[in-house]
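Hey, quick one: can you model this chain's 3D structure?
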Amino acid sequence: MEVVSSIGRRKAAIARIYVSEGKGEILVNKRDYKEYFPVEQFQYIIQQPLTLVESLTKYDIKVNVRGGGAKGQAEALRLAIARALVKIDPENKEKIKANKLLTRDPRVVERKKPGRPKARKRFQFSKR
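Sure thing. Here's the predicted structure for all 128 residues.
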């Protein structure tokens, strides 16, 4: 198997991944993913697509991730891994899609409007 690349996005985070056959090593920005994402919830998010198709120890994954916060980065990485697994074996698509892991979450921060303190908040109204 040659190297399969994929991309995932969430909020302001972008994750580019390169998947090759190996023994289950995931490197995020040249560090182990458990060191990069010390919170167990984020580790679970990253492992979701791999656990679903029972290939936790089948592939080595190299990740370049930037932008956003930890949760956005973890979810961007999850989408990238799910897309790569479908590229590797199209039979995985049904299982992954059924768990909604191929859907790009479109929610992003609303822009700040002029003359307002935030996107929707208004300054206190004064009658006099």
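One thing worth noting: Helices lie at 33-36, 40-52, 70-88, 93-98.
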